[in-house]
Amino acid sequence: MIGAAAAPPRREAPGPLHRRGPRPLLLHLMLAMLKSSASLGALPTWSAGWPGSNATAAAEALAAAVAAGGAEAATAFPQAVLADVLRQDSALIAGIAAYRRHPYFRDLPDPPTIWAEGETRLLDFGGAGPTVLFVPSLINRAYVLDLAQGRSMLRWLAGNGVHPLLLDWGWPGEAERRFSLTDYIAGRLERALLAVPGPVVLAGYCMGGLLALAAAQRRPDRVAALALLAVPWDFHGDDPERARTVAGMLPLLEPALAFADTLPVDALQLLFALLDPYGIADKYRGFATLDPDSERAKLFVALEDWLNDGVPLAAPVARECLQGWYGENTPARRQWRVAGLPVDPAALRLPAFVAVPARDRIVPPESARPLAALIPGAVLHTPGAGHIGMAAGSTAEAALWRPLRDWIRSG
Predict the structure, then answer these.
(1) CA 179 to each of CA 42, 253, 342: distance values in angstroms, whole numbers, following the listed order
(2) CA 137 to CA 363: how far, in whole Å?
(3) Is the pLDDT of residue 147 over 50?
(4) Dist. CA 285–CA 266, nearest whole Å
(5) 8 A C-beta contact, residue 389 and residue 304
(6) Quick one: which of 321, 319, 317 has its CA closest to 331?
(7) How far is residue 143's CA from residue 152's CA, in Å, rounded to a whole number?
(8) Hey, which end of the chain has fewer CB within 10 Å, N or C?
(9) Which tens digits make up the pLDDT trace of 199-209?
(10) For residue 383, what is the DSSP state?
């Protein structure tokens, strides 16, 4: 009797998809495809070197051999390039698939709401100590400052001698879709300040820092001190042409602005992609190599979920930011006005803490650092971290949370 054939090794079926990101997915896949096509298309003209930022050691060695005139290497080089392109594309797809199937989900309950207006809420994290009102960006969810268990700056501060409040702008509703920056600052933010016993420390993160800066100048009676965390000021300080390129997208975005009275989330993600076209693909290739059960992988998924959970931007605000901030650099030129008054950091007369992350690609140090020089007596802190890592990364407690807590309590 013929023996039965051995059964093939059993493979576990991949888990179900939990998410749709990275957004917009088609854009990132197209950018990766264009990079691969450019690498292959340039093969006939290469004599040495490896274009792009992700050269492998093998390709670099082959390129050096070609430059030295090695015939065998010259034959092998195109094959090595093709193999490396296929490896990078495969790693990108694997990383995206692993992210989309990862079982992590955020399960932190919101703290109590102590004030609300329209779609905006003021959340109270409790704690004993100086009251600090945190102002996040208008285009990202506020919970980056309350990301996950053990990765929440606000819960850590509440347990370490500070009383944090978080202004959650919410999704722009019918009223908010018509808001200008003046409506957000001189209206909603100022009313939030009036809703709590003051004066308070006002802390702004990223775009929220510009709103906080303007509010502090307008209402010094309600603000005891100001913390600016990775806040842009000189939009042409790092790369003026790139900033003008972002501003130049405004005419192309006008149909979307007119249709929805907002700049949609995917359009915002497109603008961020212009700042670092291949960054998304690079980090997903790296994610493909991680143990999905590791803390590093879970933190990656938590941060990517937040990044992909964006908020549309009211059309008047989008026009003001793209044309004014990015195109004309109105803040640095002292031409940005709120309710008719110019926003001038040099006019502030209150303690200030300016955090400028050393590895920030979203708000380059050249954009944020001028604020520390303009505000009289400001404390400049330079965390060895990136824009998001400073607030919620694995080293955030040492990079920002403790130094910020110490500065708050020293006042």
Answers:
(1) 48, 18, 19
(2) 13
(3) yes
(4) 22
(5) no
(6) 321
(7) 9
(8) N
(9) 999 999 999 99
(10) -
400 close to 383: Cβ distance less than 8 angstroms: yes
Mean pLDDT computed over every residue of the chain? 86
Closest CA to 277 of 38, 11, 14: 38
Distance, CA of 132 to CA of 266 (rounded, Å): 32
Token couple for 40:
């292959």
Residue 58: how many CB atoms within 10 A of its CB? 13
State pLDDT tens for residues 164-191. Answer: 999 999 999 999 999 999 999 999 999 9
Question: Looking at the domain 113-238+312-410, which fold is it?
Answer: Rossmann fold (3.40.50)
The two three-digit tokens of residue 362, written as one number: 């979203």
Q: Is the peptide bond before 24 cis (omega within 30 degrees of 0)?
A: yes
Q: Stretch 10-20: mean pLDDT, rounded?
A: 53
d(CA 169, CA 162): 22
Ranges of beta strands (E only) in 318-410 are 337-338, 341-342, 352-355, 379-381
Choose the weakest-confidence range: 40-49, 225-234, 342-351, 390-399: 40-49
Residue recorded with tokens 């640095």: 332
| Structural domain spans, the chain | 22-44+57-101+279-309, 113-238+312-410
Q: Which residue has the tokens 């703290």?
A: 111
Least confident of 31-40, 237-246, 252-261, 270-279: 31-40
Quick one: how many helices (H) and strands (E) in the chain?
18, 12
- Contact between 166 and 146 (Cβ < 8 Å): yes
Residue with tokens 């790296």: 286
Token representation of residue 56: 């492998």
Model confidence at 141: pLDDT above 80: yes
Query: In this structure, what DSSP letter does residue 102 have?
Result: -
Residue 188 DSSP code: I
Write out the two tokens for 305: 């979920």
Joined tokens for residue 134: 């945190």
C-beta neighbour count of 125 within 10 angstroms: 24
- Residue 205 is given by DSSP the state E
pLDDT bucket at 95, cuts 50 / 70 / 90? confident
How many residues are there in the chain?
A: 411
Q: What is the pTM for the complete model shown?
A: 0.84
Distance of CA 181 to the CA centre of its chain: 20
